[in-house]
Amino acid sequence: MAQFKNFIGGKWVDSRSGEEFERTNPATGELIGTFPKSTEEDVQAAVEAAREAFNRWRLYPAPKRGEILYRVGQLLIERKEQLAREMTEEMGKVLTEARGDVQEGIDMTFYMAGEGRRLWGQTTPSELPNKWNMSVRKPLGVVGVITPWNFPLAIPTWKIMPALIAGNTVVFKPASYTSRMAVRLVEIFQEAGLPDGVINLVMGSGETVGNAILRHPDVALISFTGSTDTGTHVSVEGARLGKRVSLELGGKNAIIVMDDADIDLAVDGILWSAFGTSGQRCTAASRVIAHRAIQQELVEKLAARAGGMRLGYGLEETTDIGPVVSASQLERVHSYVAIGQDEGAELVVGGKIARDGELARGHFHESTIFNNVKPTMRIAQEEIFGPVTAVIPVDGLDEAIEVANGVKYGLSAAIYTRDVNKAFRAMQDIFTGILYVNAGTIGAEIHLPFGGTKATGNGHREAGQAALDVFTEWQSIYVDYSGRLQRAQIDT
Ligand code: UN1
């Protein structure tokens, strides 16, 4: 049986606790392997290794850092299929989507590798003669990267690649459910020749390991993706300790379907966005805001297609929807079915935990649609993070926009319409970090800023150039070559 280890200072090491935890395949119940239950001392060692490596890594020329990232990208390409299969085994998403997850990681790696030859700063004229002003990006030091299980490869790369290209060193704590994928990524860094200590991996619970990283005085920044509850804790602790925190949290993303929309196109987008990855995306469409004129047609088409989706093991080609990640997540998702029914919403399809035959071995939930949901109901307000979506009828665009904005989150939204004026109104008046026109709520590309407003985050963005703002600090530099005292604001 595979026994995985932490990676600290360039070596694979056991936890000082000597304890381990297990991960089983969420579709079959088979054991994946054992992983170290790390302690505060392990985190201490990881941060020390990262701190020690920082002074060398930050002085390693950025284009050279980029070359290592290019090698990482190349290895990810070579191993794409193997990584995707292992991902499906570990967390359940279907193979095509697992390939997409790896591809997103490859894209981010190459994008940030290229930054090694840019990392632009600015030059700015001085108000004084014979003086040169500029501002440059500086790394922060040791950064803590804490990632979720739903994108076990992509999300770590969104954080680690910009961190490294900017000259930071990393302590990485992946979600326990997807620790093996984190090991695979770190193995690739090692093979690509990343110097010892530049990336360190510590596995275990958020309670012990996550908190130890968060509270360590030598960790300058925490980049966290996960639940809003945990994110609030990270935010409060970060503020108390005066460290930078970048948060990517929940969503309650809506797809508006107007009466002039291409209904079949909307159906495709809704099914993909609501049930892809079994609804376990922060960008998942868990609300459909339907114009009453097309509501019935839309719901009938959605229900027919959703009812025909095949649940199963993600490695089997015939599977449309995999399991959810764990037994506890299954219970949580399923509890929302009862909540929706109690609130008086109309269950049109799905609603059950699937227990037939082979499915009984895993954590499978039917794709579920509620109709005639009121915007105030819990199923219309709370993030479910599973294959459940709520259709909310409205009478027109103003109401649709009001309902779309009427949740505490602000990650992604979409509108299906053939009317360009309505599309522009949505772009103007919907306050989410991401907005799609005639496409579903998922599928962000890595060179655009990714993130959300309100309870979804804390103002930072991942991906694209915006990611560099998270992982760097500006330094303004004034070079006076006049050879005399020149007083700004006074001698001008
Ligand atoms: C997430 O669910 O946390 O846009 C990330 C998307 C993917 C990323 C999702 N590219 O759905």
UniProtKB/TrEMBL annotation:
PROSITE patterns to which the protein is assigned, alphabetical: ALDEHYDE_DEHYDR_CYS (PS00070), ALDEHYDE_DEHYDR_GLU (PS00687)
GO molecular function, one term: oxidoreductase activity, acting on the aldehyde or oxo group of donors, NAD or NADP as acceptor
Active site positions, chain numbering: 248
Keyword annotations from UniProtKB, A to Z: Oxidoreductase
Top-rank lineage group of the source organism: Bacteria
Domain annotation Aldehyde dehydrogenase: ranges: 12-477
Entry's family note: Belongs to the aldehyde dehydrogenase family.
PANTHER family: ALDEHYDE DEHYDROGENASE-RELATED
Name listed for the protein in its UniProt record: Aldehyde Dehydrogenase
UniProt source species: Sphaerobacter thermophilus (strain ATCC 49802 / DSM 20745 / KCCM 41009 / NCIMB 13125 / S 6022)
